[in-house]
Amino acid sequence: MKRTIVLMLMVLLLLPSLTLAQDDRITIRFWHIWGNVTWLPEVVEPAFEAAFPQYDLELRVLDGYRNAYDLYTLAQEQGDPPELLQGTSSNTQAPRDSGFFKPLHEAIAGRAEINGIPVRLDEIVGPAAIFYQLDGEYYELPWNASTPIVFGNMDLLVEAGVAADVNDFAAIPSTWAEVHEVCAIIVEKFDDVDCINFGAGGWYFENALAMQGAYMANNENGRGGDCVTEVLFNSQEAVDYLAWHKSLEEAGYWVDYGRAEYNITWADSKLALHMTSSAAARGRVEIGEGNGFTVGADRMPYNQDVEYVGNTVGGGMILLTDGLEPEVEEGALTFLMYLLEPENIANWHKSTGYIPVTQSGFDYLEAEGWFEENPTFAVATNQLTNSARAPQTAGAIFGSFAQVYQMYREVFQNILRNDADIQESLDRLKAEADLLIEEYNLLVPCEEM
Amino acid sequence: MPAFLFTCLASALGALVVGAVLKRRGRGLRGGLALGAVAGLLGSLATMIPLQYCVLDPENHMFFELSVLGQTITVNAVALIGFLLVIVVAWAFVLAIDRLRHHWLARGATVWKADTAPGTFIGYDFSPWIFLAPTLVGLAVFTYYPAAQNFFLGTQLARRGVANTAFNCLDNFASLITSRLQDAHYYILSDGFIWHAENARYLAVFGNSVFFSVFIVLVANVLGLAIALLASQKIRGASVYRTLIIWPYAISGVVVGIVFAILLGGGGSGFLNQFLQLFGAEPAPFLSDAWWARASVVAAAAWNKLGFNVLIYIAALQAVPMELMEAASIDGANAWKRFLNVTIPMISPYIFFVVFLNLNYSFFDLYAVIDNLTEGGPVNATTNLVVDIIRVGVESRDIGKAAAQSIVLFMVVVGLTYMQFRVMGRRVTYGAD
Amino acid sequence: MTALSRRRAVDHPPLLRIVRDQLSANRWYIHILLWIAVIFMGFPLFYAALVSTQNNAQMFRLQMIPGNSFSFNLQTVLDRNIARLMFNTFAVATMVTLGKVVLSIFSGMALVYFRFPGKSLVFGFILAALMVPGEVTIIALFRLVALELGWGNTWTALVVPAVASPTGVFLFRQHFASITPELSEAAQLDGAGPLQFLLRVLLPLSRNTVTALVVIMFIGAWNSYLWPLLIVTNPDLQVIQVGLSTLDDGVEIGRTWGPIMLGAVIASIPPIAIFVLMQKQFLQGFALTRHK
Questions:
Q1: pTM for the structure as a whole
Q2: Residue B263 is nearest to which of C47, C135, C248, comparing CB atoms?
Q3: Which end of chain A is more exposed for a tag (fewer CB within 10 A), N or C?
Q4: Chain A environment of B295 (Cβ under 8 Å)
Q5: How many alpha carbons fall within 13 Å on the CB side of residue C280?
Q6: What CATH number has the domain bearing residue A226?
Q7: Which CATH architecture has domain C81-291?
Q8: Is B184 touching A (CB cutoff 8 A)?
């Protein structure tokens, strides 16, 4: 009897190892959120595995950034995290504090190439580079960098007499004042067309501050040697931006679509200007093609009364799990460097609209004549190239950032819908955000750099 | 020393209040005084010992402003909540002690019977415990333990993914009423003003929960009863109609949310708006305006639950004795009078049953619909209590604040259940009797 | 009044017929109104089915005829492993339902057919759990299951916390209490033990209650969303309701609606089928416990 049990146990133990034995490749798991980017599973995965037969790349689609990080935390708690995780620019410091991840520069350790692939980190462009650096060292891999730009339905603009022809992208307003001017014409001309839409979210606010050279938080966004202890959301620059936003709403130029599928309105030519992530370029242009109108784009409108400093990046980065076996970590790094290869950067850009984050990727596209053929796709890169590499455009570092991001939205809504006083609302927001920072720092003491 | 004073004060207050109440009910002042004193003592000890009397510590105080009749009053939120807690717990002790006293008095009359009630199995001492064990263990571990854990977490500063925690008194609760990010507006459409609270984020969320519950129950029951009245007629194909009407009940909240999102979304170019424009209607901002978005959630949820209500109401209507209708008819009652005076009273047990099921659903089970239809927006307009718990506890990882919110939600359930027992217990006959 | 009216009815059959006819007329407008209700209830899912055959361009045009992208959408949902998700959901929902029904029957039985000290206390303990919906405890439950028990990412986490059901216990207790005690006395006289009594007498008498509970619990388990969303990360173990949201893949880029709608329709078929097929037994199960 005993022997039977022992035998059965052995068989049970052996079974999984038998199935495993068939595949002695090293598994590199990458949890991402790009369910509808077929390029990843259909091109990248087979190509990477062909180039590096020792690795088995396992892509897993998750539902959104927030979900991805939650599920990753759970996987860490279970002791079986994936090697690579897609992160978001609105949540950088908390993952660094979590101890789950290995700073990229430590893993690379000054090497110039990994598994034969050059390390192209020094080629990374503009704010995308500094956003993921602390003290000049990369903590995460900038990969899907985007920036807010304004897409225009060029046919509507031509019909309204704003643009000379459908290729006249310069007619898309690029200052706060111009938005008012153009919207006045459009609303006058069409009864049922909304002039401009953009989310009442934190990202535009973040960019508006950076463009005007203002900091989000004290101690130079936490990059000036000391930790962030308070946010600067109630600055004059912040008030100016919201006053502009509010004035658009009052004039009936800005329309909030909530979470509704605004693409229907866009497809229906009922929306002239759409400010959103440059990562939406592919989708915007395709809808235009499918519905017979040309889609143009121009930079995010800036405050014409203040010197322009720069935009900041959105999108996200890829995080490397800490505590991996050396050969697994090597594989994960290999994949990261593989993604930075010019051809891959170029294809990633083409299939989404995220900017080519490396100079060589940009050059590759330029050589192909891509930007000449698709000027809509060039806007984001230009905008970030023109942006200063300064702490203002590098994002603020404090651990409760994601939570504070949520609060922006509530306050904006209060200002836009309930006509709350802007300065007072921002004062309150600052007070609440400061409390959150204090609470976070109580649990996770901030180490000064 | 302040702790000792506080306890004495609570005890004295309890004695005064309970004594006065019982005296007015003609049940003796002395017993009331004693009962109140004991309850006040126990209540303050039971709440304040775990809290380490932190509400007395000036360092913990958080203030908020309350506008009453044009006067602005500054209220100490932590002290207020601590005070309320003591009262609630003390009152629970009053009820418990009172009940126990009755029990002891009654016990003399009912001697534990050696013989058995009819039909019970004799000689199986352990079987019932074996039968019950999985259920009891399951409830203890997965319901009661986490519920108790909530009370502990509610007093902590705790973040998911961070090992450190810190005791923070009642700040998590106080922050619910001191958070001043958003105005809460609540009006009834035609009847003017219900309430308006300035800068009260949590009140707004609470208001959303109440709004959803009231209107989902109203819509799903009025429509459900109306459709059931039609479908319970003896007409050809009645059962086919019934089947074709009730099935959406089985659809999940996720599917309801995403399907309604494509019907209602898209602004003026969205499906429903285009359809309505065929009849010359103005496009409505279904998901982007706060009130329209709330209405959309109500519509989606009511649509989802309507089938169940219709099914139960058809059964209820078919159980109304024909003779009663007939008699009413002979007495000259028209259809509407018959409905009001015969049908409604006859089916009232079903109405209460359905209303409370719907109420529970709309208070607690809307997460999937909201998450997939509006994601709680525009901004917080459709965020209800459960959505906010997930937002705070899971998305923002602020476990202590989420636990505090969970406890508030728990209080709501206790209230609803109490109401349910009061109403149902009186007017509805359950089960075997 | 009842007796009176019954006598009258016997005395005047024509009047009864008139009243009956009036109450149950086969009038055309009732049919029309019912058809409106049918369309009103059916349209949302019908439209979802329509979109599931379309691509984004066709959907944005609000095209009201089927599009040409059905096979692409189907391929997409198959690529996202919808078959696996459906199987998982079926397995989990079946285990949860089975567990709930079995535990509820045993608990109900213990509460009705046995005498033991502290019975009312035990019943109170179970009933009071009705006051603690899962949403109230979810934050702490997550900590318990994920951190203390280490069950994250397993079906154990989906099934075990769900099987103890106060509702089920309550339903069965009421149902068993409504069955005449003579049956169990007779069974005991025949020398049957509790288990034999359960299998031979109680279960056959409880078919409707069991069905009612199965329908409600299965639909509930099939449709559960929040808990698996939090506790399961592995797509090979995930359930369909959460899987639907990974079909919703827009983030910054924009959603493709066809596959989402196709997934929604597929996910809805099993619970609808069960509800529709079992509606009669479902109703009788309820009527039995509520009214006899």
A1: 0.84
A2: C47
A3: N
A4: none
A5: 3
A6: 3.40.190.10
A7: Orthogonal Bundle (1.10)
A8: no
